[in-house]
Design goal:
Shape: globular
Number of helices: 13
CATH superfamily of the largest domain: Glycogen Phosphorylase B
Distance between the termini: 12 Å
Radius of gyration: 20 Å
Largest sheet: 7 strands, parallel
Order of helices and strands: EHEEHEHEHEHEHEHEHEHEHEEHHH
Helix content: 40-55%
Length: 356
């Protein structure tokens, strides 16, 4: 078996991290694996052992029209490269719906085409309709990161649900570092530097709760952070950090993890950072819709609250952080819940999907 994996933008966000885990699992099982992704960027997909890398051009642009133009050009380049590289016997694994050029060429070549879908919130609608239309036309099978997403974005294709999981090394380090003895009450959020991810809501919560420390880790440079908050007054209890390759220290020191995505603009299809926080025994507060509700059990290991409901979130933070007995119970429940989402399940299920 030869697997050709395709991804658009290599960075330190969730979808390339999941693909990295897949690639490591396949090579571990002696599957010949090739990766096509954009050149010139450092991310989770960089320098993975035993993976043959192939690069094509793509550049992210803030302007949506320029970004669409760049996407189109990149997919023409990708399609050209794949046309001369793919064999009919290959398994083409397309990570996210964005590399549509791969789906088109995979269909033309008669390959087994597997799409791994992570997203549902996408604008403009015409682009989303086009991309998911390519999926429906070209895919042999569609892999979803949660049951919620499979229900939200149904296609006529064969489907599987493959939950995101934690790497064994991550779990081992979390187990070694775990403690309920916190020297400081820290509320942590790790996300992209986007308004729809709840960055502004996190700032508001910090202002409303001066007795807690709020730490925001974003997938952005310090210059981008400064530009984003240039018109805001940052309270002294809010600390903002740029892109971090290693987030273990943040989870270790944190007391509570929050995800404040705006449910009107962005629905979380899974929530890998939530799962990582749970492995560290962190009670979590997340939106009441999306894939995150498959991770968080109301009142047991966290709470499901709309990010705009500042008063209720503040109330729950105070309850969690002022009651040691409750905190320890929720922390224990969070760890137990996270243990299902392990590397062994992920590896076995992904190879089953490839071999169907």
């Amino acid at each position: 078996m030869r697997v050709i994996a395709v991804h658009l933008l290599n960075d330190y966000s969730g979808s390339p991290k999941v693909l990295m885990q897949l690639l490591k699992g396949w090579t571990k099982n002696n599957i010949e694996t090739h990766l096509f992704t954009c050149s010139g960027r450092d991310g989770f997909l960089s320098d993975i052992p035993k993976v043959s890398n192939h690069f094509y051009w793509y550049q992210f642009a803030k302007n949506p029209f320029i970004r669409l133009g760049f996407l189109s050009i990149s997919q023409i380049i990708l399609a050209f490269k794949l046309f001369f590289f793919l064999k009919k016997t290959d398994v083409l694994y397309v990570n996210t719906v964005l590399p549509f050029g791969a789906g088109i060429i995979g269909k033309i070549k008669g390959c087994k085409v597997i799409y791994h879908i992570h997203e549902t919130s996408m604008k403009p609608k015409i682009l989303k309709k086009f991309l998911f239309g390519i999926v429906s036309w070209s895919a042999t099978e569609v892999v979803y990161v949660s049951n919620f997403l499979a229900y939200q974005e149904p296609t006529k294709n064969k489907k599987s649900v493959l939950y995101n999981v934690l790497e064994k090394s991550f779990v081992e380090q979390a187990n070694l570092s775990f403690t309920t003895e916190k020297t400081e009450k820290i509320v942590l959020m790790i996300c992209s530097l986007k308004a729809y991810k709840g960055v502004n809501e996190f700032l508001k919560l910090a202002l409303l709760n001066p007795k807690f420390t709020f730490k925001l880790v974003v997938n952005a440079s310090q210059i981008e952070i400064d530009n984003y908050f240039r018109n805001d007054i940052i309270p002294t209890n809010l600390l903002v950090y740029p892109t971090q390759k290693d987030t273990h220290l943040f989870y270790k020191k944190a007391s509570v993890l929050v995800n404040l995505s705006d449910i009107n603009l962005w629905v979380e299809t899974f929530g890998l950072t939530v799962l990582e926080g749970m492995a560290y025994g962190l009670p979590t507060i997340v939106p009441p819709v999306g894939g995150v509700i498959e991770l968080v059990d109301e009142g047991k290991n966290g709470f499901l609250i709309d990010s705009k409901n500042y008063s209720l979130i503040s109330e729950k933070l105070n309850i969690i952080l002022s009651n040691p007995t409750l905190y320890n119970t929720m922390s224990k429940n969070a760890i137990e819940k996270s243990q299902f989402f392990g590397e062994e399940y992920f590896e076995n299920e992904s190879i089953r999907i490839l071999s169907n």
